[in-house]
Each structure stands twice: as structure tokens, then as C-alpha cells.
Write the C-alpha cells for this entry.
Amino acid sequence: MRALVKTANEPNCMEIREIEKPVPRDQELLIRVLGAGVCGTDLHIRKGEWICEKLPLVMGHEFCGEIDEVGRTVKGFKRGERVVVEPHHSTCGICEYCLTGRRHLCPDKKAYGVDRNGGFAEYVAVDANLAHKLREGISPEEGALIEPTAIVCHGVLIKGTIRCTDRVAVVGPGPIGILSAQVARAVGAAEVIVVGIRKDRETRLKLCEELGFLSYEAENTEAIEKLKNMYDVAIEASGFSKGIGLAIDLLKKDKQLITIGIPMEEHSSVPWEQAVKKSETMICSYSSSYMAWEMALTLVSSGKIKLKPLITHLMPLEDWEKAFDALEIGKGVKAVLRP
């Protein structure tokens, strides 16, 4: 079968290869991949900034597919059903986090597409207990975006709280930021805005406007000054120090900062004194829980979250370089590859 493989922990070192089709174990499902999303993590792996333990490795941890084979001990699934898959492979099952329903935080967790062969391939074998049935009305391309939607649902709805009276500001108009804005609106936020930077205007902030959100550029200091101390919830989705500082600026006193963006800086510079004096509640969120996946599927199938507008590049696996290049220079929002 064809697969996109990372061959060395150095910049690039990726290629399409013919590899053996996996054989599912007793507890696994063999999935015929119908769509796989390109994540920021994949871009970092391409650059050699994110180290993979085991190489060569089939990349891709955001994927949707159709069950081709069902392992001998698997129950509740049948051939032909479409599923999406949590990436939390190889958790220990006995630590505090696994035993309390937080396997995504297990210290021994490995991930498809990072530590074990993932979804940038024609087929992938996955543990059945990580699969969720795709709801009716959700296309395979949209299914490939359920994983980032679940990350947002976990941070915004399970760890954070949004009430119908809340004004919400989202900092960072990447896929996570745009999904955060949609989730906040879906649960009844009174107002939602999105703040990006000038280079986001052409594609990402334009999409925010098309989805019905007011958008602002951080460089527009006059406009930003008027927004300071106006919001009940700030969702930080950029991962940059300046983004965290801006989110704190936008918050009223004694309100809620939800941080979802993953920093690539070793140390972030945060206006800590300002955050303390404003008595802010800071909520850090990472990865996604089982219930967050069910929330994501429910919100998407109900039409309250729209995923298709985020897919700016839908390409065959062979065109992976074009998709990666477009995302790296900010000329797209989300790319989905079809093996």
C-alpha cells in the first residue's frame, strides 16, 4: 500500500513509499483511510522540530475511514462502518490518569502518526476502543477534522466554561482558533471575536468573517485598545507569547483565560503581574478526552459547527508537498489528504 513516511528526524526526509498493508490484531480494526488532516504537528515533524522515536514512520494522526476488517475480540463494530479515531495509542491503563478517564494524559501514551504508523496511508490498524462511529451527515473529509474539534471541545467545554452572557475573544485564527470561535458560539456565547495578525487577513481572518465573526488584526493598535478589558473569556490558540499577553489584555478582571495553542518557544514571556492583579483564572488544556470526541461529533452533525469551510486544500496523498507548503506559508487553513 502507499504511505507518506518520515525517514529521519531531520528537515524534510519524507517520501511516498510502498509498504506492507497492516494486519489487525485481535483487539484492532483495520481502517481504509478516506481522509487525513494535516496538523501543525505534522509541519513540525517535517521540519525536524518534533522528534519521532521510531523511524521510518507513517505520519498522520487526524483521520477518518471505513472499517475493512474487525479483530477477533472486537465487539460493537462491523465491516463497512465509518469511524474516526482518537490518537491515544498504548496508554498504560493503570495510572491515575487512565483510571480516571484521562488516558490522553497518560505518561506512557504513544500516538498514531507520531510514535506508531498513522493515517497518511491507504490502511491503518487501530485499537477498537479508540474508535468513534461517524455520525450521519458528516463526510469523510469533515471526519478528518473531528480530532482538532475534540481538542477544542475538551478545552472550551470540559475544562473551561462559557455562559450565554459571555463575550468571548479568540486569539489566533488557525484551525484551533476558528473551531474555538464556532464552539463558543454553538453553546450560546453572547459575542465572539477573533484576533489574528496582518498576514492572516487574506485567508484566515477572511474565513472568520465569512463564518460570521468580527475579526481584528493585532497590529491595529487603535482598534485593539478599544477591546481591552471587555471580554469574559479569552481563548488563546496561537501559542505565542504575544498572543498570551494580548489575551490577558482583552480580559475583564476576574475572568477566564483558556490556553489551547501549543508553544514552540522553550520559555514563554507572559505578563504575569498583570494577570495576577486582574485576578484571572488560567486554564491550560492539552489533547482531548473521550467525551470531547462525542461532543465534537454531536456539534458537527447538528450543523452548529461547520468544518467544510476550513478545508482549503483537498488533495491526493501524492500531492502532500503542495498541501504542506501552502499551510507553512499561511496560504491555507486546513489540508486533507486522500490516500
Summary: The longest strand covers residues 28-38. The mean pLDDT is 96.
